[in-house]
Design goal:
- This protein is mainly α.
- 72% of the residues lie in helices and 0% in strands.
- The chain is elongated, with a radius of gyration of 20 Å.
């Protein structure tokens, strides 16, 4: 998945037409010395990084959900059942909070989650 995303990004960088750069407003970041093309690249890389972080956090939430569910079904004979289950739930909840933080950050940067190709 990541390799394909990088290849699409490289193709996008290669295919950018100068007329597309005319629509880019360069914000006056202190210390930013690039022009419209550099700002375009920075924006595209930020979107990709946000998408990768979002996908990874989403997978972590799913994995911890599976751990909690499986342990609830099969772990009752374990003498440390309640402690382990509590730890799994804490990890799941922490992963959910992390995912929510990423979604908020993506909203701030206006980077929507990757849409599935249909």
């Amino acid at each position: 998945m990541f390799k394909e995303m990088i290849e699409k990004l490289a193709q996008r960088f290669w295919s950018i037409h100068p007329k597309e750069l005319d629509n880019i407003t360069i914000s006056p970041h202190k210390g930013f010395y690039g022009g419209a093309r550099a700002m375009f690249y920075a924006d595209e890389i930020t979107k990709l990084a946000g998408t990768v972080a979002y996908e990874g956090a989403k997978e972590a939430v799913i994995a911890w959900e599976v751990c909690v569910s499986a342990y609830e079904l099969n772990g009752k004979k374990d003498p440390f059942y309640s402690t382990k289950l509590s730890d799994y739930k804490k990890a799941r909840d922490a992963a959910r909070m992390h995912l929510e933080e990423i979604i908020k950050m993506k909203d701030l940067h206006q980077c929507p989650p990757k849409k599935e190709d249909s």
